[in-house]
Amino acid sequence: MSAPTTKPTVTEREARQVAEAAREQDWRKPSFAKELFLGRFRLDLIHPHPMPTDEAAQRGEEFLAKLRDFVETKVDGAVIERESRIPDEVVGGLKEIGAFGMKIDTKYGGLGLTQVYYNKALALAGSASPAIGVLLSAHQSIGVPQPLKLFGTDEQKERFLPRCARTDISAFLLTEPDVGSDPARLAASAVPDDGGPSRSSDFESGGEYVLDGVKLWTTNGVVADLLVVMARVPKSEGHRGGITAFVVETNSPGVTVEHRNAFMGLRGIENGVTRFHQVRVPAANRIGPEGAGLKIALTTLNTGRLSLPASCVAAGKWCLKIAREWSAAREQWGKPIAQHEAVGAKISFIAATTFALEAVLDLASQMADEDRNDIRIEGALAKLYASEMGWLMADELVQIRGGRGFETAESLRARGERAVPAEQVLRDLRINRIFEGSTEIMHLLIAREAVDAHLSVAGDLIDPDKSLQDKARAGANAGVFYAKWLPKLVAGQGQLPYSYSEFKREVDLSAHLRHIERTSRKLARSTFYAMSRWQGRMESKQGFLARIVDIGAELFAMSAVCVRAEHLRSRGENGREAYQLADAFCRQSRIRVEELFGRLWSNTDDVDRKVVKGVMSGTYAWLEQGIVDPSGDGPWIADAVPGPSERENVHRPIR
Asked: If DSSP states are collapsed to H, E and C, what string results for 551-596?
């Protein structure tokens, strides 16, 4: 019973196999986005717009009112930014109103909010202080409550969920100093201790695991009471082994929070480095079977990722408010700057994109609540699109504000102007392009799901490990599939001038829906052509795959805004204005889509690879001359060898 001293060595192929094994393999429910990538525009899956029940809406609205009162009267975002810490009394107040139990069922002491209202609450809290939004979402979206809700036993739920609902803070620990998006190299270990031969058969009820390792970027980890930890169980007699999920008490002997990290943004978050040395974890604290840890993590993130779009929606709404107020007050060359086309275009982009992000978030969230659809692609697209567009909106606001956008709120206040934290929002939003799957990883993850139908029928054709017999069988299956599928990509409703006429009002959105239908088929044809052209090399064409995914994201967003606009119109809620915003967004989006299609086949990918090869070989090292490097000394990646901690424990539970 000893912890491994070296990290697992894996090939690229082995790493891909680990990731593939963690995927949900089946599609038991329909998926709007999956169909979109296959060239099938299934508007019936999202229109009419799904709605929460009256009871869910009432419960959600009541809590939003309580939360709004709390953040308006008890939260000072400037103090959190200045002191890089959420005051303990604020955390205590959030516990008292039930904010830590928003997603936990009422029978465990939680509020039992739907995903829709949970996200609305995160947006509201995050607008007061993004650090609070992160605190609440890391606790509930990926911390102990969500994986236990999906995979926990009744006994585990009874033990831990009431604590998470009211008193305890939780965190999720997967990343390690040398392990990011490649979990196949996970080094943290959980070695079974059967307690001797007499107890080996009764391990589930009395055995323990001995946990060793170091985890990095543990959001909430500095203050957490409970942790979800991913660790590798070695394969042995009676143990299938593999990456496994555990609930760990932070006050267990051998758990040390060695450092509280500091970042360019989100300065109030409690993110750290946690070391485990010979930490004994009861087998009863294991979530799911051994080897299911990655699948649990990925399934948890299907809805957990929706917390990031919520923060981006909140930021977009704030950016729009500031842009409107500032652009009316600031005059240049005899008129308000909003009336200058260069600034007006930025304001239009912020307004239309904010409407789109809220449409995408609400649609994906309501689909998650209804559980009629598989939303693994929709949730991932929402995270990817919102994090990229949210960053662009914040950047445009800084530009609209000019020098005041670059100046800190404290400095503005000190010299007598309104303390607008535009530069802070830009810093805070930057991490969303990295959190919970970087943009680059999300492109690959979504691309893999988008081409799943192709790989399921033709994957063996491009797998070098398959026999000629397997390839022949796959060829026959592929022939049948494509004989039925390809002809459907030639024509569709998008070519009929009166299709989707229910979306034709004073502003005509039906033309945009016809465009989405036509473009969906074009996207599917492009994907098929690429697979035919590159076959097994397709997975290495990351630039191409990213553009395919980005086109799909734009089509999903356009679909969401049209459905939302019609939904608001049918309810008498700013319908005419919603149609105007939807039209503006779709026109902007269609231009981006046209550019992306052009870059599918006309790009610098080949040249870029040559330049990268030259950079890494030192061919262009002369270009780096003439500067000094202000970086400090030290290793690029900190040592994470298992062993006892030599640092002070900075764990700070909040009671």
From this structure: HHHHHHHHHHHHHHHHHHHHCCCCHHHHHHHHHHHHHHHHHHHHHH
